[in-house]
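= Paired protein data =
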Amino acid sequence: MFRNQRRQLILDLIRENGSCKVQTLSQTFNVTEPTVRQDLNALENEGLIVRQHGGAYIKEKSTQNVSLVLPPRGHDEEKDRIGAKAATFAQNSDNISLVSGSTVTAMVKYINQQNLTIITNAINIAIELSDNPQNNIILIGGELKLPTLSLTGATGISMLEPIHASKLFLATGAFDVKTGLTYPSFSDLELKRAMIEKSSEVFLLADSSKLGKTLFASLGKVQIHHIITDSGISQEQANLIKANDIDLIIV
């Protein structure tokens, strides 16, 4: 792995978790701790992170002024179109699960169905959808990940035990038909897996830049019924997805 590529992945990981230790990064990327420190120093010099003893944390606003709007991650127009299309698959009185992520968040403003039961681990999604008093919101508990406004961990997984959703709307860091779903962080893989297992129908919301790529934290090949993406998808990727019996929806 090239140095700049590793540094970008380190930045993605810290953005996902809020902070990370040198030892963890060393093990994750299979490089020495002095190399990790050099990477962190470089990222700090660019004003992207703040170094601390033994690790680093993301440079964000004070927690006293936390916004419930996720910061832009790129491809916002594509995510908006994907979100609008995804919302049409939620029917009145559905039980749906929404996993935290910028593309799923883009879907929320288009949800106008009535009497929905909505299961989510995203604080911002739960608050926005609670504006409609006819919706029943179930917020899965757990450890707070401030950068993604999400909750994760064993507490959330245990809360899912008696729950079943008709449809799950899921985002990803990357997707490849051979390796499946991958993410920039290991922290909530098991919660995502549990939410998939507790759903009858899985919709993957992924802009085309994420298709045919992999990151290092693998959720593996899980059942995905539909992929909603944008028109930037290559013909090769479209053919591979269809060949794997996944319904491909292009917006």
In short: The CA atoms of residues 173 and 183 lie 4 Å apart. The domain at 76-250 is CATH 3.40.50.1360 (Rossmann fold).
